Every structure is written in C-alpha cells, then in structure tokens.
Amino acid sequence: MDGPRRLRSCPRDTQGSDWSGCTLQQFMDCPYNLANNRQVRMLADLSLVGCYNMSTVPEKKRAQLLLESAKKNLRDMAFFGLTEYQRKTQFLFERTFRLRFIRPFMQYNSTRAAGVDLDNATVQRIEELNELDMELYDYAKDLFQQRYQYTRQQERRQQRIKNHMQQSHQGLGLGVGLWPSRSRQGSVSTLEYGEGEREEREEGEEGGRTEEAGSRLPTEDYMNQIINR
C-alpha cells in the first residue's frame, strides 16, 4: 500500500452493513478489525499517535501510548462503574453525585457469551488480539475497588463522628460529664475506641458547634481536639 497506512475497512464492511454470517475466525483474521482493543481506543487520546495513521509511531510505542492515555483518562473521570459489580457501582454513583436511586441495581452474571463454547487456542488468540483491553480492565478493576473502599471508609468515619457528637451533646444535656478535664486529654480514646478507630479519627477534620445547655459546654476547639485525637 502506497503512502501512509491509514484506517481501512474490513472486506466484510463493503459487502454488508454488519458482520452477520461471518465466522469467528474470519472476524479475528481481519487486520483492520476495530473491535480489537476497542475500549482502549475509546478512552485514549488518539491524537497522541496520529489517530489512525499507522505510519507515524512504531506499533509497540503506539500501543503503550494509547494504554497509558486510556488509564489517565479513566483516573480523571469523576465516576465509572463495572458491570460485574452492580451494587458497588450504585454505591459509588450515589455518593459521587449525591443522589439516590429508587431501586437497587440488579446483578446478572449470566450472559450470551458465557454460553459460547470455545477451545483454548481460540481463547488465547482473542486474548492476544485484545491484550491492551485486558490490561486496561485489570487496572480499572483495581482503581474501582480502591475508590469503593476509600468512599466506604470516609462514610463510616463521618458517621462515627456524627454519632459521637450526638452522644456527647445528649450526655451534656443530662449533666453527665463526658468530656475529660484538660489534664486528662492525653489518656482519652484508647479505652473508648479501638486503636484502628483512633487512628482514623486522627486523619479526620470534622468539627462541631456548641450551644448553651444550662452549664458551661466545652469550646469548639476543645471538642475538635478530642475528636481528632
């Protein structure tokens, strides 16, 4: 082929509007099949490699540039979900955009593809053709789990602080001294909370407001020192 190696259509595309009637082997053998590593191309910045001009960047470097670009763009997204984790996807979506669905997401693990019987050689060939997509998925799954765990921890920490504040105000309203004297601040928390919870409180920066309750309440700064200890 003379000139730059630009995007070409598979022979099948010139014969019909789709790939119906095409065998899996024919589908895999087409060198211009855009189904291969499609997810990476959809997420990556194609201008980094001259879009579909295959002569601008060596093939190996082109693949690495596209994969790294796809990973970066995925990280920069405020939210993304995974079909395999419907409940976690719903949880992250609701916390990210501060809204609630009226029904929980349903998890369906049976697909049409699961019923296709393929020999090991064919599976290996498919994996080779979609090597970049498979690496991107592994990266996405790890990033997704990190975001989920972080969001859960943040939510639990905020709930503990909220509960602690409510209990403290209730105790003070009844005249029960839940707050230690300043001389005892250094001994607080290990007995009242587990060590892991104490460490989490040290990372938090939640504050609270005080109100008059018939007796002198601790100042806001003092309360913050206890909570964030």
From TrEMBL:
InterPro entries: Heparan_SO4-6-sulfoTrfase (IPR010635), P-loop_NTPase (IPR027417), Sulfotransferase (IPR005331)
Domain of life: Eukaryota
Subcellular location: Membrane
EC number: 2.8.2.-
GO cellular component terms attached to this protein's record: membrane
Keyword Transmembrane helix among UniProt keywords: yes
Location of region: Disordered: 179-229
Top EC category: transferase
Membrane topology note: Single-pass type II membrane protein
Keyword Nucleus found: no
Residue ranges, compositional bias (Basic and acidic residues): 195-214
Pfam families, alphabetized: Sulfotransfer_2 (PF03567)
Catalytic reactions on record: alpha-D-glucosaminyl-[heparan sulfate](n) + 3'-phosphoadenylyl sulfate = 6-sulfo-alpha-D-glucosaminyl-[heparan sulfate](n) + adenosine 3',5'-bisphosphate + H(+)
GO molecular function terms attached to this record: heparan sulfate 6-sulfotransferase activity
Keywords: Glycoprotein, Membrane, Signal-anchor, Transferase, Transmembrane, Transmembrane helix
Functional note: 6-O-sulfation enzyme which catalyzes the transfer of sulfate from 3'-phosphoadenosine 5'-phosphosulfate (PAPS) to position 6 of the N-sulfoglucosamine residue (GlcNS) of heparan sulfate.
Protein family membership: Belongs to the sulfotransferase 6 family.
PANTHER family listed in its UniProt record: HEPARAN SULFATE 6-O-SULFOTRANSFERASE 3, HEPARAN-SULFATE 6-O-SULFOTRANSFERASE 1
Designated name of the protein: Heparan-sulfate 6-O-sulfotransferase
Lineage, highest ranks first: Eukaryota, Metazoa, Chordata, Craniata, Vertebrata
